[in-house]
């Protein structure tokens, strides 16, 4: 079921001639309770896949927005175990929306690869992205997750040449995450034409859906990406919208949902317009 | 394969020292890491690379550093003869420049036009800024904001050398955060930038490469002690932060099994207080900054802040080869508290007329016991990896003196 839920999420979007909307939220930011409310609002706002971040003290591939979110989450006592509980509560209410975890390896190592995979599957998680586990290091975790039918998503980047791409695509399930910046999360997006070309290379090499992320901040950028990708990932921008809402005394869950709604509308309309 | 007969063969092709080491980095960096590994292997096989490096190590760094018989300290403890390897006499005042010189030659060989580095105490930052000035490459040094404050003389030195020092406010604003920020910079500038890591940590090939560049310490020591004493020492002693000076001293002796190896970590306020930097003594294996090694961490795998009076040892991890040497029993890892290091510093100053840095003062704090353990007629060599001039304000503060 888990990998299938991911595959189905992309297939449903494809059947509607649109890209899937993938939304990143940091678990426990600004608190575990508020985060549960934020997650609850996402499926109704058109989110197809949720990336639920679990915090790490040393997020070396993240920009300031997600760094700060991680610090806020850790201050509220968020752990990988509590992140799984959050996922489980979400899954009970939302059987269809795909949910993957995103974070760094050390909390998973501490949990134990087998134990983590079992608990994640029990919680209704569909897969994970582990930022600092490249193909050279992810074999053991991949095997443990595969046993539970969980997808371990790999990142393809602007630095991945043809040889590297072959290494990256080997054994991958779920979808392919194309990182649209040679940089950290929230960095400036590279040129759409360059992304289109790179994504074309990925498509030639793999039948899996390709989602594009890192640096997509607005409905316009989401729409542009939606023309060439099977999925559009929005992370730092959503994290910022939610954080700003809480800082200014507004309802963060509502703010997050309405931002996602605007993204999903833009994505929906994107392919109705001629490609520019 | 029995590790004991083949210490020199580590790391393996995957950069592993047993279960430790590896390449745990974001995918964006992987092509760069692989290219670096290839370039380093090519450079090692090229005799002109080492020959060029040797000239600069001799004429610019001032190698070989002397091996000095610390007679009064030896008498004081009444055990083995204690020798100091004097790496504090290098240009820039520490062993760090051995590695920086090697890496900048490699950077130039790879055609990189921009250098970045992280620094804690500032010694590696100063050494990097120095080689960048010498070879005319722009240099950005990331330094935790806390360290910028407590090591201000080194910050100014780096600026004088033309480097840009970028304070890092993230996390705990110390060495580990500086390393995170340097990695983020590298991810963002993969094509033109070379990252000079200052210790034997980080993704493969750094632990191996930095070790190889620092092994000049041990190679010289071996030659010098054979010349002076006609035999190998009974024990080697060095302090451990990331562990680059220690591995540099130890590595050429790994297969000489009769030579005991002692690393001394920073116990801060005491291991039992939880406020220390002794990853090997008080941590457990995990993954941080590109490698699997012993780390200070909580039950959720979150990294715990290290504490040491010595900024250079204030790091929650340790080089993966040390983790391997600990688990195989080849090296023994001890620790010394802030107070013990301060006492040892003063003892060395009074008896030998040498102000060691606070980092090697930790090794000095255990040397009496080791010398007694080895006993009369024995020989112990300790590396003084840095000089204490940079620490006088910290020491004055700790001793309640006004400067």
From TrEMBL, chain A:
Catalytic activity: (1S,2R)-1-C-(indol-3-yl)glycerol 3-phosphate + L-serine = D-glyceraldehyde 3-phosphate + L-tryptophan + H2O
InterPro entries: Aldolase_TIM (IPR013785), RibuloseP-bd_barrel (IPR011060), Trp_synthase_alpha_AS (IPR018204), Trp_synthase_suA (IPR002028)
EC number: 4.2.1.20
Enzyme class name: lyase
Active-site feature positions: 51, 62
Domain of life: Bacteria
Annotated keywords: Amino-acid biosynthesis, Aromatic amino acid biosynthesis, Lyase, Tryptophan biosynthesis
One Pfam family linked to the record: Trp_syntA
Listed pathway(s): Amino-acid biosynthesis; L-tryptophan biosynthesis; L-tryptophan from chorismate: step 5/5
Function: The alpha subunit is responsible for the aldol cleavage of indoleglycerol phosphate to indole and glyceraldehyde 3-phosphate.
Family the entry assigns: Belongs to the TrpA family.
PANTHER family: TRYPTOPHAN SYNTHASE ALPHA CHAIN, CHLOROPLASTIC, TRYPTOPHAN SYNTHASE, ALPHA CHAIN
Subunit: Tetramer of two alpha and two beta chains.
Name listed for the protein in its UniProt record: Tryptophan synthase alpha chain
Source species of the chain: Candidatus Phycosocius spiralis
Gene that produces this protein: trpA
Automatic annotation (TrEMBL), chain B:
Keyword Amino-acid biosynthesis (UniProt): yes
Family matches, as Gene3D superfamilies: 3.40.50.1100
N6-(pyridoxal phosphate)lysine modified-residue sites: 96
Domain Tryptophan synthase beta chain-like PALP residue range list: 62-386
Pathway: Amino-acid biosynthesis; L-tryptophan biosynthesis; L-tryptophan from chorismate: step 5/5
Keyword Calcium set for record: no
EC number: 4.2.1.20
Cofactor: pyridoxal 5'-phosphate
Pfam family, one: PALP
Reactions listed under catalytic activity: (1S,2R)-1-C-(indol-3-yl)glycerol 3-phosphate + L-serine = D-glyceraldehyde 3-phosphate + L-tryptophan + H2O
CDD domains: Trp-synth_B
Subunit description: Tetramer of two alpha and two beta chains.
Function: The beta subunit is responsible for the synthesis of L-tryptophan from indole and L-serine.
Family: Belongs to the TrpB family.
Name the UniProt record assigns to this protein: Tryptophan synthase beta chain
Origin organism lineage: Bacteria, Pseudomonadati, Pseudomonadota, Alphaproteobacteria, Caulobacterales
């Amino acid at each position: 079921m888990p990998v299938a839920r991911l595959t189905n999420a992309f297939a449903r979007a494809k059947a509607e001639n649109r890209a899937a909307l993938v939304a990143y939220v940091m678990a426990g930011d600004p608190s575990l309770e508020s985060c549960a409310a934020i997650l609850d609002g996402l499926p109704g706002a058109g989110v197809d896949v949720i990336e639920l971040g679990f915090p790490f003290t040393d997020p070396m591939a993240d920009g300031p927005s997600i760094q700060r979110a991680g610090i806020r989450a850790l201050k509220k006592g968020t752990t990988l175990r509590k992140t799984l509980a959050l996922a489980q509560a979400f899954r009970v209410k939302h059987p269809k929306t795909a949910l993957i975890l995103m974070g760094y390896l050390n909390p998973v190592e501490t949990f134990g690869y087998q134990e983590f995979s079992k608990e994640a599957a029990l919680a209704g998680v569909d897969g994970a992205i582990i930022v600092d586990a490249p193909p050279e290091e992810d074999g053991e975790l991949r095997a443990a997750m595969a046993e539970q039918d969980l997808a371990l998503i790999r990142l393809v980047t602007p630095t991945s040449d043809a040889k590297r791409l072959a290494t990256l695509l080997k054994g991958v399930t779920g979808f392919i995450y194309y990182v649209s910046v040679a940089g950290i999360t929230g960095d400036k997006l590279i040129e759409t034409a360059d992304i289109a070309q790179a994504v074309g290379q990925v498509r030639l090499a793999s039948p899996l859906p390709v989602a594009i992320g890192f640096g997509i901040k607005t409905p316009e950028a989401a729409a542009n990406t939606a023309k060439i990708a099977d999925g559009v990932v929005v992370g730092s921008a959503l994290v910022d919208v939610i954080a700003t809402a809480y800082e200014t005394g507004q309802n963060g869950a509502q703010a997050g949902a309405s931002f996602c709604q605007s993204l999903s509308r833009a994505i929906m309309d994107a392919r109705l317009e001629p490609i520019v | 394969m029995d590790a004991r007969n083949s210490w020199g063969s580590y790391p393996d092709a995957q950069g592993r020292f047993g279960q430790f080491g590896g390449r745990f980095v974001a995918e964006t960096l992987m092509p760069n890491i692989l290219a670096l590994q290839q370039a380093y292997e090519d450079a090692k096989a090229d005799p002109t690379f080492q020959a060029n490096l040797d000239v600069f190590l001799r004429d610019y760094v001032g190698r070989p550093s002397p091996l000095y018989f610390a007679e009064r300290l030896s008498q004081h403890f009444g055990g083995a003869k204690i020798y100091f390897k004097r790496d504090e006499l290098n240009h820039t005042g520490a062993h760090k420049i051995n590695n920086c010189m090697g890496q900048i030659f490699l950077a130039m060989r790879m055609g990189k036009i921009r250098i970045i580095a992280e620094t804690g105490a500032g010694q590696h930052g100063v050494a990097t800024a120095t080689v960048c000035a010498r070879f005319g490459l722009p240099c950005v040094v990331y330094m935790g904001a806390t360290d910028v404050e407590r090591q201000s003389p080194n910050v100014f030195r780096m600026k004088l050398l033309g480097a840009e020092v970028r304070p890092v406010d993230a996390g705990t604003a110390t060495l580990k955060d500086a390393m995170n920020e340097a990695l983020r910079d590298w991810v963002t500038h993969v094509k033109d930038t070379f990252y000079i890591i200052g210790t034997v940590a980080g993704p493969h090939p750094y632990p191996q490469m930095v070790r190889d560049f620092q092994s000049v310490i041990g190679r010289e020591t071996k030659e010098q002690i054979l010349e002076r004493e006609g035999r190998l020492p009974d024990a080697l002693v060095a302090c451990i932060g990331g562990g680059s000076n220690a591995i540099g001293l130890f590595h050429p002796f790994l297969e000489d099994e009769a030579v005991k190896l002692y690393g001394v970590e920073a116990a801060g306020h005491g291991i039992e207080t939880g406020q220390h930097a002794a990853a090997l003594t008080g941590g457990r294996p995990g993954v941080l900054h590109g490698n699997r090694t012993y780390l200070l961490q909580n039950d959720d795998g979150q990294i715990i802040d290290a504490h040491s009076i010595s900024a250079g040892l204030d790091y929650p991890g340790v080089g993966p080869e040390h983790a391997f040497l600990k688990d195989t029993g080849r090296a023994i890892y001890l620790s010394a508290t802030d107070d013990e290091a301060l006492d040892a510093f003063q003892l060395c100053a009074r008896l030998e007329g040498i102000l060691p840095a606070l980092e090697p003062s930790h090794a000095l704090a255990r040397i009496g016991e080791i010398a007694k353990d080895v006993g009369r007629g024995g020989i112990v060599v300790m590396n003084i990896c840095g000089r204490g001039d940079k620490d006088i304000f910290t020491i004055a503060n700790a001793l309640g003196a006004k400067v």
